[in-house]
Amino acid sequence: MKKRALISVFDKSGVDKLTSFLAGSGWELLSTGGTYKFLQEQKIPVTEVSSVTEFPECLDGRVKTLHPAIHAGILARRDEPSHMETLEKLGLGTIDLVCVNLYPFFEKVQAGLSTDETIEFIDIGGPTMLRSAAKNYRDMIVLTDPSDYAQTIEFLKSGAVPTDFKKCLAGKVFNLTSAYDAAIARYLLNEEYPAYWPLSLKKAQQLRYGENGHQNAALYLAADSTGAIEGMEQLNGKELGYNNIRDLDLAWKAACAFGFQPENRLPHGNDVLKQLGIAVSQNGSNSEPDANFLPVCIAVKHNTPCGIALGSSLLEAYEKTYSCDPVSIFGGIVACTVKLDAVTAAKLAELFLEIVVAPDFEDAALEILKTKKNLRVIKARYAPRDKVECIAVDGGLLVQQTDNTLLEKWEVVTQTNPENSDIADMIFGLRTVSYVKSNAIVVVKDKAALGIGGGQTNRIWAAEQALARSEQAIKTLAENPSFQGKTIADGKPARVLASDAFFPFADVVETAAAAGIKAIIQPGGSIRDKESIEACDKLGIAMVFTGTRHFKH
Asked: pLDDT of 535-553, one tens digit each?
């Protein structure tokens, strides 16, 4: 019986070589629609599917291959006599190769089309043929990926396609269709947490190793949406590794919290900030960075910030950030909220850094950074877009909404009100602490997170760590000629402390007071809040409750 192949592809890459070989080897080719016309134009002998089904394409092409004459030829087991007898009785032939790729739903779901237009890119016949062929892989060759055409041709030239290879091709089918269906489910479902969690991720690259050298790793990106990582362009340096990507993700998210915001960031907190007179980003609905944002610089090491600061210029922001922790920044990542200039680039080049990320780079700045051949220089196009985050657990997945509310309220709970000059620093500390590992305390002075205490198993240790670091940072700044005569380097202690969660005891307040803290911002909510409030009143400290905890585990 003459071998037959059914070819129906949206992506026609390499299909001319495959079909030329098959036709030259005596195969009969069946096809539909655009693929049929393409093969005719290539002068490759082809039979239209409708002549096999004796049923015309209809419903604007929605029904072409959905016919027993096609699926019986695909699904019939060659080693089952009753199946072959049925085909003979019905006058049907086998189909021995199916080459199909799908309507581009992944791309079209992002194109801003109407619902009716998007639905027309949900492929029905393609997945149905693929699944049928994959189920019967022992008797079939099923191709979805043009990169498999060449190997298939080589096996056919040798006389037989190994079953293991056909099984692998079948596995690729279900791998593709599961992601395809997940993308459709995500588009159609209107449930925050559906019965089955739909994941549609495509492998972007194999990584050299994972968190440690003995661990394998790969990067997968959403097939049906574009996120910040996919929108990044690497301009210099070595290939990114697993740890680099994790740190880059956090650094850019933190930078965006101080610069441009995605749509889902701070939907409630913005109202409170405006009431306090705190400037709020006006481009919440935009994808692109805004060149007019204030310069903020962030240093990240081991997936936690080690310095964050706002400056009158990016250079000042960087020097303040560096002074927050000049030890930990070594081998870390620096993220900037504005275009990186040459002067700041020259300062960055003095350090060993893994990554520098910014929304743009001056040509001269890029040339300076490129002198360090291993330094990864990343241009970031998009703000973070994910509305949920997932953490793998053994045998499952934890899924939660992203931490998208900075604060629910501004409640002064002490007799002393915070001074106007401290309010902006309190908000700055709150933004910072939401990106620091719990337990987390941040000490702020003049829009700089001079002391960051994170990842501690109790809050007093985090406070002691943050306060000690802030004292050292102030000394470092005082020795820097660039900050002579400026408030941040006046030798006085920092006035503001921010906490990611409530105080279970009064010890943090007492320790903060001894270090010169005059204003504290924290969520409140402890059954022992009264102890901390009374300690603040006794020590003349202002304390504000926000109603929003920011644990980051």
From this structure: 999 999 999 999 999 999 8
Unique residue bearing structure tokens 């056909």? 166
State yes or no: is 202 an active-site residue. no
Write phi, then psi, for 532 (nearest 5 degrees): -70, -40
Residue 124: its H or E element: none
Query: What does the alpha-carbon distance between residue 8 and residue 37 come to, in Å, rounded to a whole number?
Result: 11
Q: Which two tokens stand for residue 317?
A: 């922001």
432-459, pLDDT tens digit by residue?
Answer: 999 999 999 999 999 999 999 999 999 9
Residue 317 near residue 327, CB atoms below 8 Å = no
* Cα gap 375→308, rounded to integer Å: 21
Please tell me the distance from the alpha carbon of residue 156 to that of residue 330, in angstroms, as a whole number. 56
Cβ–Cβ < 8 Å for 291, 334 = no
For the beta carbon of residue 384, count every other beta carbon within 10 angstroms: 22
Confidence (pLDDT) at 271: 66
Q: Which two tokens stand for residue 310?
A: 């706002």
Single out the catalytic residue among 3, 302, 372, 409: 302
Q: Which of 12, 67, 71, 135 is catalytic?
A: 135
Q: For this structure, is 135 an active site residue? A: yes
Token pair listed for 121: 């890119």
Q: Are 498 and 525 in contact (CB under 8 A)?
A: no
The H-assigned helical ranges of 405-523 are 420-433, 459-478, 507-514
Give tens-digit pLDDT for 149-161. Answer: 999 999 999 988 9
Which tokens go with 420?
């106007």
Alpha-carbon gap, residue 299 to 316, rounded angstroms: 14
Helix, strand, coil % over all residues of the chain, rounded to 5: 40, 20, 45
Bridge partners of residue 334, in order along the sequence? 299, 356
pTM of the model: 0.86
